[in-house]
Amino acid sequence: MLVAKTVSQPPGIAITDPSKIVRALDVFILLINFGLLIAHFIGAVVSIWVTVLASGAHRRMLLASHHPLSAGKTLP
């Protein structure tokens, strides 16, 4: 919508319709939306990273608990 407003304005001609003017609020909303999009992407990446770390630690813990030396047993 912001690009459409900008492209629809002919250069050098006075704008008589105030709804076609790109306002500072339009740019501010665009920046906020972009920031929220980036924040959600970063959150998703961090969530996946933590899940991978947790599953790796869980896997190592399970493997260690099935090891004969971990339960105080001695090898034959």
Short description:
This protein has two helices and no strands. It is rod-shaped, with a radius of gyration of 29 Å.
Features:
76 residues; mainly alpha
Topology:
Elements: H1 2-8, H2 24-65
**Low-confidence stretches at least 5 residues in length (pLDDT < 50)?**
none
Strand residue content: under 5%
Mean pLDDT score: 80
Q: Could you tell me how far the N terminus lies from the C terminus, measured between alpha carbons in angstroms? A: 75 Å
Structural class: mainly alpha
> What would the principal axes of the Cα set say about the shape?
rod-shaped
- The count of β-strands is 0
Number of helices: 2
Tell me roughly what share of residues is in helical segments: 55-70%
Radius of gyration: 29 Å
Q: What composes the largest sheet?
A: none
SSE series: HH
Provide structural commentary.
The protein has 76 residues and is mostly helical. The longest helix has 42 residues, at 24-65. The protein has two helices and no strands. The mean pLDDT is 80. The protein is rod-shaped.
